[in-house]
Amino acid sequence: MFLKKIPLPLMLLLLLGLVLLFGPYIPLTLKSFFLFCSLFLKSILLFVLPFIIFIYLVTSLTSFEGNILKFIFVLFFAVTVSNFLSTMIAFGLAHQGLPVVVCQISAGKNALHPLWTWGFPSLISNEWALGSGFVAGLILSLYPSQKILMLIDRGKHFTAFFLNRIFIPLIPLFVLGFLLKMETEGILWNLIQTYCPIVLLLMGVYSFYLFFLYWTAAGFSLRQTLNFIKTSFPSGLTGLSTMSSAAAMPLTLKAAEVNSGNPPLVRAIIPATVSIHLVGDSIGVPILAMAILGTFGLPLPDLQTFLIFAGYFIIAKFAIAAVPGGGIIVMIPVLEKYLGFTSEMSGLITALYMLFDPLFTSVNIMGNGAFAVLVSKILGRGKSKA
Q: Which domains does the chain have, with CATH numbers?
């Protein structure tokens, strides 16, 4: 019961500290067993993930049901463009800033292998789940069928049960095997030292980009920009402490209503985009991914490779589950297929994402507040508060 009350980022920090302190004294056989557990949990996730992607992607797109076609098109297009621009900012920043703060880390002579190598096979490709979910969601949003929507809703309850009751509580065990592998191979402490400057890099780019969004939403008025940020700040602070965009939604709505001057439209925009318009994830996840590539001695992706990755990355955002770590869970296959991630790298980015999740969530919320004002202006009915 006590462990359930510990926030997941704090749990991972404690786990990291324990591995650093006691890792050298743990028998190799036990380490190999934990690595097997991590890989086995990953195989379970990859087995279920196509169904999760399909269900959440359809649910996300059918949330536009009952709204006018113009609203659906503008909102969907605006979310896609915003996420794409944020992702491309991460690409440019990674190529300019990461070579300065990231150093390649070489593994030691010791190598840790799993005690066993059995796992669940992957029955359906994630690309098929993304494509079919996207098409089905668009069709159902325009031509809803109550029977199909009821089946989708049941599927959502099943996937939510799997994530909230089974996989999310086991994330510390999922990460533990990979942490022990990195500790055994002598790279864990070097990784910690390497990623400290990345926190500062992310905070700097987040501050600049959020200011730009609110400045644009305020009609390039500095005074209005500061007023908008001041009004929205409590929602961002709530997201930082709760790691939940849903928990902060009442404050996000209130701030966006005041800033936009159009409460009815904002009340339609924010609930529809709270889990799909993710500025924090769009910038943070690619930067962490490319930082990991650099530390493991792999080259950063070129523009063509990154554009392919970005396409799948953006579509997958519509399938993100509103659970702790949902932003990275659906991205693991995309990272492995298009950026060449290994299981060890996937475990590392999962741990880093969980640790940075409060920051990512706060930026997602603040970004969505500015986005709601901008979209209300695009639709031609929003009026900024003077």
A: 7-106+125-378 (1.10.3860)
